[in-house]
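User: Please predict the structure of the protein below. I'd like the answer in structure-token form so I can feed it into my own downstream comparison script.

Assistant: Understood. Taking the following sequence of 196 residues as input:
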Amino acid sequence: MKQKWRDFKARQIQITDLDDRTLLLNLYITQMLTLFIGTIWVLLQRRNPIELFTLPNDWHFAYWGAGLAATVVVVDLIVSRFVPDNMTDDGGINEKLFSNRPVWHIIVISFVVSVCEELLFRGAIQHAFGPYWTSILFAAIHVRYLRHWLPTAMVFGISYALGTIYEWSGTLWAPVLAHFLIDLIMGLILRFRREA
């Protein structure tokens, strides 16, 4: 049977329509695409993606990464304490992703997302366009936040800070560590907040 493309209708999917398996499949496929695009982009820039992940001799990058992560988590907790939920609503996707997830899986998700996204955004795009335009793109791909100005501004600010510590530290490991810790801590908060 031949499919008629003009009969195809796209519809917006609500988070409640997604089962856990579909959500995870979507997450991992998009991250693998992000990793693939980032790797190709870096190669087209005539750079070696493996060298981007070479650990530096000193561990100063860890201070930048952990310091930024701590700052972001504290600001996020303050915002969530004093700003109404409807101004920071992401459509429930983070809650659905992390609330019933085992801790080991939250660690895996946080690591995969931080490595894939930082390779593309800091390793490839920032190299071409700088931290400002990279942060615009980073905020735009986090479409679930675009309905409200506050989370969009926060994602832009976090991205710009990730780009800044990348430039200051000279290693991709600084933003990878910060991104990992931010996602891990916020994921664990969502996971254990539900139990409390």
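That's the full token string. The helical segments are 20-44, 49-52, 60-82, 93-98, 103-141, 149-169, 173-195.
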